[in-house]
Amino acid sequence: MSKDIKILAIETSCDETAASVIQNGHEILSNVVVSQIESHKRFGGVVPEVASRHHVEAITHVIDQALKDAELEPSDLTAVAVTEGPGLIGALLIGINAAKTFAFVHDLPLIPVHHIAGHIYAAQLEKPLVFPLISLVVSGGHTELIYMKNHMSFEIIGETRDDAVGEAFDKVARVIDLPYPGGPHIDKLAQTGEDTFDFPRGLMKEDTFDFSFSGLKSAVINKLHNYNQKGIEVNKSDVAASFQASVTDVLTAKTFAALKEYNVENLIIAGGVAGNSELRSRFTEMCEEKKVNLQIPQLKFCTDNAAMIGAAAYHLYEKNHLADLKLNGRNFIDIEEYTF
Amino acid sequence: MISLLLDTSNQALSVAVNRDSKMVAEINTNYKKTHSETLVDNIQKVLEIADIKKSQLDRIIVAKGPGSYTGVRIGITVAKMLAKQLNIPVYSVSSLFVIAVSNGIKGNTAPLIDARRAHVYGAVYNIKEDDYTEVIAPQYIDFSSLSADIKEAVYLLNSSEKITVDIDEYTHVTPRISQTERYERALKLEDADQLVPDYLRISEAERNWQDNQ
Questions:
Q1: Of the CATH numbers 3.40.630.10, 3.30.420.200, 3.60.15.10, 3.40.50.970, which one belongs to the domain with range B96-173?
Q2: Do B36 and A97 touch (CB under 8 A)?
Q3: What CA–CA distance (Å, rounded) separates A78 from B158?
Q4: Using a CB-CB distance cutoff of 8 angstroms, which residues of chain A are in contact with residue B86?
Q5: Where are the domains of chain B?
Q6: Which residue from A218, A204, A118 is spatially nearest to A168, judged by alpha carbons?
Q7: Per the annotation, where are the binding residues of A for Fe cation?
Q8: Where would I find the Gcp-like domain in this sequence (chain B) (predicted)?
Q9: Contacts of A231 by beta carbon, 8 Å cutoff, 6+ apart
Q10: Per-residue pLDDT of chain A (340 residues; tens, 9 = 90+)
């Protein structure tokens, strides 16, 4: 019998300081996340310098807690994993330098992990991935359709040409006076509204798996401006519902077209926007109808966390993808580079 | 007593191993490679050169700023982690004090770090052989107001940095963290979990936010 692989994973790519211990790529021995949202709320978005400062404050606490919750000593670990990128560079560097120091002190192998690979592998914390699969990654920084024919094999088949979908949620939330982060607030408000505005569906009729959300965002802003000038009171619930309907229509249409084109029956939806209730219910319904195996991780694994990094790191460890102590952060890494 | 000392507050990097406050080995670099890439690697190298095992270390000493925000954060993060994982104490020292004692200049010294827009991070120390007095505490200040308060001092500037303030005469200094340990009084014992950089400035976003309140 082979030895259990226990990986301490660290994630600091944006505004969550997180550490987790994952056994054999899927058993969660601990999962600690310290969120900075309360601090960034006053700015209406994540401020990189402020995020980096908070990471330094929290990093040792979070790592200690992850080991304590897992009831492990550093000597029980097999390796240390850390998000290499993409993300806010100053934020990434805190996790990377903490991970390198931990690996150096305890003579452990160091595994660099792609943040988006992590989001997809969050699904593995609930059940093993089945290939080939397509993953729709939707978050504040990403909107991508990724084809995977096997573990650690990534092909981008569609991506946003402008704003990420989560970014569009935040911007629309701001213009209808909802607090940051906009996603959950729009979701809630939309439940009492209806799609009365019929906002544009970006690139819907074009023969591409790419996305575009800036036209939708502008349409919402223009409509509100127009109403404002005419002195008409706008129903914000209907704005939220109409915006969300446009987003969901586009995401479902592109995703099912891709599943058909690539002849794939397994779909994973990953990233923070996967927490949106309409998106979840529409995909669930449509996947049942079209006999597609759908997996959307529970909300706490959709938003940034280190457990997902530990899940992806397991396969990188198996493939011997390791870094030395010169590992640096990268604010952008093409996920296709992460095919091993 | 064996100490590992780190300074990553500006472009220059200084990593040293001291035994009983005297330098055993020191690595100083001054080039474009980032501290994020080189610091931990250079710690491994300096220990190798000094023939010291990490388990033999008794304490960590780290320059806690002011300086480049990203730079000091890397030094502080690594120092915190080393202290916790090796279970040894961590001490901090002002990055300006490192500059003040690196060249062996005695008397009144005014170490400066250029902070652009006519501002500096600056302090004044009266340095003696084995002791010192802090004449002006480290602060972020308009250089002309600081220089008006300084009667007599040698201006010391970190040799790697661009100088944008109007200053006539100064000495270039390569920061050498090994030189700080004989001034024990300048070292402050820290709680590793609580340790954060001494930025001496809040972030721009927080400043703007406060101004709007």
A1: 3.30.420.200
A2: yes
A3: 42
A4: 105
A5: 2-95+176-203, 96-173
A6: A218
A7: 115, 119, 304
A8: 30-147
A9: none
A10: 468 999 999 999 999 999 999 999 999 999 999 999 999 999 988 999 999 999 999 999 999 999 999 999 999 999 999 999 999 999 999 999 999 999 999 999 999 999 999 999 999 999 999 999 999 999 988 999 999 999 999 999 999 999 999 999 999 999 999 988 899 999 999 999 999 999 999 998 899 999 999 999 999 999 999 999 999 999 999 999 999 999 999 999 999 999 999 999 999 999 999 999 999 999 999 999 999 999 999 999 999 999 999 999 999 999 999 999 999 999 999 999 999 8
CA distance B48 to chain A (A): 13
The answer for residues whose C-beta is within 8 angstroms of residue A54's C-beta and 6 or more apart is A15, A17, A36, A39
Residue in this structure with the two tokens 């190298």, named with its chain if needed:
B45
Nearest to B82 among A52, A101, A329 (CB): A101
- Binding-site positions of A read 115, 119, 137-141, 170, 183, 187, 276, 304
Residue in B73, B82, B85 nearest the CB of A56: B73
Class of domain A128-296: alpha beta
**Sequence ranges of the domains in chain A:** 6-121+302-338, 128-296
Cα-to-chain-centroid distance, residue A131: 20
Complex ipTM:
0.97
Q: Rounded distance, CA B111 to CA B100, Å?
A: 5
**Model confidence, pTM:** 0.96
Query: Which single residue is written with the structure tokens 């550490």?
Result: A19
Distances (CA, A) of A297 to A58, A156, B92: 26, 21, 43
Closest CA to A170 of A189, A188, A183, A185: A183
Question: Regarding the domain delimited by A6-121+302-338, which CATH topology (the fold level of the hierarchy) does it fall under?
Answer: Nucleotidyltransferase; domain 5 (3.30.420)
Cα separation, B16 vs B61, whole angstroms: 10
Measured CA to CA, the distance from residue B5 to residue B59 in angstroms comes to: 9
Amino acid at site B126: N
Same fold, B2-95+176-203 and B96-173: yes
Identical fold between A6-121+302-338 and A128-296: yes
